[in-house]
Every structure is written in C-alpha cells, then in structure tokens.
Write a structure and sequence with these properties.
With about 475 residues, the protein is an alpha+beta fold. Helix content is about 35%, strand content about 25%. It has helices at about 5-15, 20-30, 35-50, 60-70, 95-105, 140, 160-165, 165-175, 200, 205-215, 255-275, 290-325, 400-405, 410-415, 435-440, and strands at about 85, 110-120, 125-135, 135, 150-155, 225-235, 245-255, 285-290, 330-335, 335-345, 345-355, 355, 365, 375-380, 390, 420-425, 450-460. The strands form four sheets. Strands 5, 6, 7, 9, 13, 14, 16 and 17 form an eight-stranded mixed β-sheet that branches. Helix 5 (about 95-105) links the parallel strand 1 and strand 2 (about 110-120). Helix 2 (about 20-30) packs antiparallel against helix 4, helix 8 (about 165-175) packs antiparallel against helix 12 and helix 10 (about 205-215) packs antiparallel against helix 11 (about 255-275).
C-alpha cells in the first residue's frame, strides 16, 4: 500500500469528497512525505473531530477550512461591463496592455482600475496596471517579483567624487554587488527578518529560508541594477532639509529574489485550482481574503516585501561603509505589491503591478534608463489613479525585439554620448528599449510632483 497518503485514506476516516481535501493532500504529501502514514492519519482524526482548532494551521488549515466552510470551486464568467478606470498617457500605451486592463476590469471582484503612462503588456495584469478588488488578492496582480522596489541613498559628497574616484567606485560595484541566480556574497550577514514566524510556520517559506539567507543583499537579473549617479535636488521645500544642489547618489532596483518567485508560482497554482476563469484571463485567478490560502498568501507576500527591503538595506549598508559616508536621506518604495486601502469609503485590495504608490505626501523614486534621469517624486494623492504613478519609463521594445534590433555598438554609442560607464548589462536592457521618461513624467503631472532627479553615471547590472 506504500506510505503515501491517498484521498481514499481520508475518506475512510469520514472526510467529505471536496476540493479542499484534494489540495490539502498535495500539501501533506509534499511537506510531510518522510513521516509515517499512521501518524498523519492520527492527526487527521483530530482534525475531523475538532476542525476549528486547526484553522490557520500551516498543514491542516486547508483541510479544516474544507470541513468548516468548503471553498466553492465555481467557474467565474467575466462581467459584461468594466469597472471604472483611468488611463494616463493613453497615446503612448500599446493596445495589448489596454485590453489586459479591460479584461481585468470585468472580473467579478474588480471595483476600480488605472493604467500608468509607462504601461506595457505583461502576464495577468499589464505592467503599469493598478487594480482595486473587493476582498480578494490576485497573485499575478502583484507579479512574480513580489516587493520589487527602488531605494535611493543621498550622500553629502561633492559630485566631483564620481569622476575623481571613478576607478574605485567601479571596483566597489564589481566586487561588492551580486547579480542573477547563482552569485551570492562570500561573507554572509544575518538579518532580523530570518527570525520571523513565517519562516517556521508556513511550510513552503520554511523550505526557502536557506536560499533567502544566501541571497540576502543580492540583486536579480533583467532590469535590476545598482548604480552611482548625481542627485539634483530642485525643490527647496524637500522633506530632507537639503539645500538645492547636487549630491552623490546610490540607486538600487531589485526585489525578493527566489523567495518571491517561488511564492508567486505556488499561490498562483492554488488560485487557478480554486478559481477557474476563461482562458484569456486565467492568470488573474484570485484568492478570497477570507480563505486559508488568501490569508497565507497575504502573510507570505508581506514577508517577501520586507525581505526585498532587507536586501536593499544590506546593499546600501555595505556600500555606505565602503564609501566611508552616511546617507543624509533615503527614499524607497515598492512597485509590485498589494495593499489594503480605503477607496470611496470601503477597504479594498489595491494591486500595483509595476506602479509606484503616490498617496498625498508619499515619496518615491521613478527611474528612467541607464542613460536617462530618474525622478524623486512626492505623491499628490490622485484618487482617479488609485493614488498611484508609473514605476519607470516602461518598455517600448520587448527583450526579444531588442536582441533583433540593437547591437552592442549601438549601446556603447548611447553610453558614450551620456558619459555613463556600464558594468554587465545585456542588449535586452539597451537604453533604447525604454520610453522617453520626460514624456512619461509629463503624462503624470496630476499624480506626482518632482523634488529632484537622479542621473546615472556608473551602472552595474547582471551580465
């Protein structure tokens, strides 16, 4: 008969034949495969007798939920009408991205949406898509790289330092930043995040802890970067009490590494099992916030967001130490995340996939490209955009198109014209792949106000 637990073993004990049991079986066989079946069946009897005691339990919570209030699996049709929405910089956005938003706005859970001026086609929600939903979270509305974010440190150093110490600064980026799936720091550093209960209580996160520990303070591939540049503060009424003028800046862009990607895949799988949708929108499957999986994803997503912040903090601390200078200001923000926010008097889940939170007075960083300035912004709290702004310039050409269209010498020419040194970086991240950031900023003047700029000078990316 073997040691593997089967559905019929649970049914023999008196469990109902429902979807929660099937999904839970997968959990049990995945995370407790080394344990004796008899012991697991003993626990199962307890769950059957007192399911309320096991609500929220990492292994049995799903089964308990199936006994107390089975999650109904029903095929959801899209509504005929769209929820209200706003599009910024409409003429600059490709039709595919608009249609992705239109489909998302027809979900039964959709309440309001918006499309940012850097928007382009993605999986699930378009990149630059914002969607407010009622009591439901969409893993692919957050995206694969949960908590992908920006962080800018401003140093009280003269910008002549960038030219005078260029060689040393290049070496700092070459030797003290790590990119991609395999590169990690030789000298590991601990962080208080690893003592969080989620690393003990949620089986998948427990399995990912070692990888997360090894990847702390590293950056991903693709468009992730660590760069030195010139910060130009242009608004004298800034929150940092900095005089107008130029400073040395360190800007980083990356997310939650393998931890976030694994969580996104796992909870998207669970969502698609519980929330079948028409084929064109199946990536928008959601988890009900009242369900075991919805609650667990929320904890996991927040942990991944905090881990992404921990990675940025680690990078900035390492580099500050090497510079021998403490930052006088730091600005940071997520742009792949979901938040509980009050919209028109009701608490909703606001997904920002490739969009910067821009509540009134909230600070953020909107990068350009490796040869274009980024912007330090203050949110204006525009309710039409669900208090959001763009997360960058946005792509004009896909990664594949870049490889067909541009050459290394095209990139070298652009770098030389803008006096930028690049370490790593592939053709798929060519500066020409991106929209004109000035146009993008022009299309969101009602969403954010500009406090200053960041102009890249020494850029490090994955190879």
């Amino acid at each position: 008969m073997g040691n593997k637990l089967k559905g019929k073993d649970l049914i023999k004990l008196g469990f109902p034949k429902n979807n929660s049991i099937n999904i839970a079986l997968g959990q049990i066989n995945r995370y407790r495969k080394r344990e004796k079946k008899e012991r697991i069946l003993e626990e199962a009897k307890e769950v059957l007798k007192h399911p309320e005691k096991f609500q929220g339990n990492a292994i049995w919570g799903k089964v308990a939920e199936g006994l107390i209030k089975p999650v109904e699996v029903k095929f959801h049709q899209l509504k005929n009408t769209r929820a209200p929405f706003s599009i910024y910089g409409e003429n600059e956005i490709d039709e595919q991205a608009k249609y992705q938003l239109y489909d998302a706005l027809k979900l039964p859970i959709a309440v309001q949406g918006a499309l940012m001026p850097d928007a382009h086609f993605g999986y699930g929600l378009p990149i630059g898509g914002v969607l407010a939903t009622d009591n439901a979270v969409i893993p692919y509305g957050v995206g694969l790289d949960i908590g992908c974010r920006m962080a800018l440190s401003i140093f009280p150093m003269n910008v002549s330092y960038l030219k005078g110490k260029q060689h040393q600064l290049e070496n700092i980026l070459k030797n003290h930043t790590k990119f991609g799936m395999r590169e990690t720091h030789d000298k590991k550093q601990d962080h208080e995040i690893f003592s969080r209960s989620e690393f003990k209580d949620i089986p998948l996160i427990k399995r990912l802890k070692t990888k997360a520990y090894q990847q702390l303070g590293t950056s991903g591939s693709g468009n992730h970067f660590v760069e030195f540049g010139i910060v130009n503060i242009t608004d004298e009424n800034n929150e940092f009490d900095l005089p107008i003028g130029e400073y040395v800046g360190l800007l980083t862009h990356s997310g939650s590494r393998g931890l976030g990607a694994n969580l996104a895949k796992h909870y998207t799988y669970l969502a698609t099992k519980q929330c079948p949708l028409p084929k064109n929108v199946q990536h928008l499957a959601w988890l009900n916030m009242d369900s075991h999986d919805g609650q667990e994803y929320w904890l996991a997503m927040n942990l991944a967001g905090d881990y992404a912040k921990a990675c940025h903090d680690n990078i900035h601390q390492r580099i500050s130490k090497l510079l021998g200078s403490k930052p006088v200001a730091m600005i940071e923000n997520h742009h792949n995340f979901a938040w509980k926010e009050v919209v028109n008097g009701k608490e909703l889940i606001v997904h920002r996939k490739g969009a910067t939170p821009a509540k009134k007075g909230e600070l953020g960083v909107i990068p350009g490209s490796m040869t274009a300035p980024g912007y330090i912004v203050r949110g204006l709290g525009n309710t039409e955009s669900l208090q959001s702004a763009s997360h960058g310039a946005g792509r004009v050409y896909s990664r594949r198109k870049c490889k067909e269209k541009f050459t290394q010498s095209d990139i070298k020419h652009q770098l030389k014209m803008n006096d930028v040194t690049l370490i790593g970086g592939g053709i798929d991240e060519a500066p020409m792949a991106y929209k004109n950031i000035k146009k993008v900023m022009n299309n969101q003047q009602e969403l954010v106000e500009v406090l200053g700029t960041f102009t890249p000078k020494i850029v490090r990316m994955d190879r």
